[in-house]
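Hi P.,

Sorry for the delay on this. The queue was packed all week, but I finally got your sequence through. Input first:
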Amino acid sequence: MPPAHATSRHFTLVDNALDSLDHAAKHLVVGDREVSVNDLKRAVLDVTHAVELLIKERLRREHPAFVWDRVDDFPTSGREFRSVSAETAVKRLERLAGAHLTDDERDAIERARRLRNQIQHFEFELGLPQTKVIVGSLLSFVFGFSRRELEDVYPSVMDVASDLRKFQEFWNRQAPACEKELQHAGHELIECNLCGALTFLVVEAECRLCGHHDEPVRCDYCGKWTMEEFVERTDEGDVICMPCTDAMGPVLRDAYMAYGLHGLLPVLQAELERRRRKGSRDRATPDTED
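Then the structure:
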């Protein structure tokens, strides 16, 4: 850390990430003082900021241009510079940098992006239970990603965030235990759109782990429950979840979004007929040998 009297300092991506983790610790580990709502807000923003910066540092090490939103704009700087979005950064990590992210890590990055946007640009609600779970899940990503992809940075991350380890340990211990308990009791569960744990009770509309409340919706195509932010709606008001949207492919998806379930049937029938005819032609074509 720079001396207290310093009037200016150049922050690298790593410096910036470590500073954000340090700030998060100062807002959550406050000694005898009670943690305020403002502390919770700042801590979540600081940790999500660190997540994005560490991802960009890994991209920068592959090539500095990958941190630019438009690679062709490299190496502009200052007010003309626009950094890559979190969504695009994840794609570049895997396709261009050869980094491997687990499904849980992708989910953590997406939650960080959504939560940061919500806090900065819209209304939100946070309490200490939610903050403990959110910070814990994001720290699990920070520690794992830096250990695997930024080995030289990992010791500094662990040092700066040492006071936050209890939140990560809380997440690692409580999330699986809570999920197992709820599954054993026979509850219908979906992934919480705030903390990411599979502990959201569909009937009660509440996450048992972090206490988040929301209204789940059922996909009209597959019948599974999910959250409103993970669905699309057709012009007729039908709900379709993201996995179904991806599985349909562009032709079926466009028909479904335009005409609903009734409009999808003729398209399916036409596709089946096309495949049947193609199969008949393939069988009618004799194999030739040289």
